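[Q] Does anyone have a clean structure-token version of this?
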Amino acid sequence: MRSYDLIIVGGGVGGSALATVMARTGKSVLLLEQSTVYEDRVRGEWIAPWGVAEVRRLDLYDTLMAAGGHHITRHITYDETLEPAVAEASVLSLDIFTEGVPGPLCLRHPIHCQTLFDVATAAGAHALRGVTVMEAAGGKSPHVRYEIDGETVEAHGRLLVGADGRASQVREANGVTLHQDKPHHWFAGLLVDGVEGWDDDLQAIGTEGDFGFLAFPQGGGRVRIYGGYPLDQTGRFKGPDGPRKFLDAFAMACSPENRRLVRGQPAGPLFSYFNADSWTDEPFAEGLVLVGDAAGWNDPIIGLGLSITYRDVRIVSDLLKQSDDWSPLSFASYAEERSERMRRLRFTAKLQAAVDMEFGEAAQARRRDLFERSAADPSLKAHSFAVMAGPESLPPEIFTDAHRDRVLGVG
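[A] Here you go.
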């Protein structure tokens, strides 16, 4: 039997970041990761400016940059109702949202995870790979039982942390309820290599026909692309030719530069999944706290998974560092902040999906109307600041049905 201050199940971004921060304070940390190699999961490669600020507060920014972190500094929104030249004349500088942050930070997810796992190990965490967790319990005596290299080990800790993703074993085993919205559309992602001529500092989104696209350059001719499409097109990109069909969908008249993406080559798997929000009312229980996707996740249309995770880690680690006596520690303040944060981001994602990922003549007319009205009234796009600057950067009235109706031209 072994004993630690923290037992963290899940050695991805959230688990490894928390292990690093707490090991640096001198706490004993057991970090358990199931995989032996981090694979491309088609998620988690874009950190919003407010998330970059959280990375800096955790003293991990230089680590990510040294691993190949890449800033995007400009944004263009294309649309079938706009001439390309009009869209490109409205390029948005992304250094305006968070002081000292030039824009979103991109880093390939497998590299990101491995970098943080290695840093956690260097900081003194007992970090293990290839682990099968057989039991993970909070309560008055938090403990885990796991198997590694044919050996079964039991470990006890002062606190159990679930950082084991959307299908969290820790969450399920400890009875934390997960809520989920109904899906709105399909969402798919693919890493593309050999993209010549796409500016490394430029991200773009757009909608045309029955497809909405997003493109985020990773540097060196690599671009992570995403696409949204209707729920009734389940098999659209299935089969061995799925990646090529997906790339071909990016051939849009409204965004001529997309031709560079179409000429690229798939450099990873193509995954399609429902867009949806999930959340927990209380991401903690006695002897237990959840971070990252284990505590619930935001619709990927606004790409805030990593930003949410880094704030989770910062808040939880701040609470843990306030005192060496964790017996009276409550995560109620974390739950309260996270609940409102996720509510606001859930509102923002639903509104963004209604604008960018609905198709047909009525949706096209609605987008055109919004473009025209927002030119005279920029407040109609205020909700988008929640994505870049953080949901707390805007007043509560932005996250209401009244604002949604104004944006969509209802009533």
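[Q] Thanks! Anything notable?
[A] The first strand starts at residue 2 and ends at 9.
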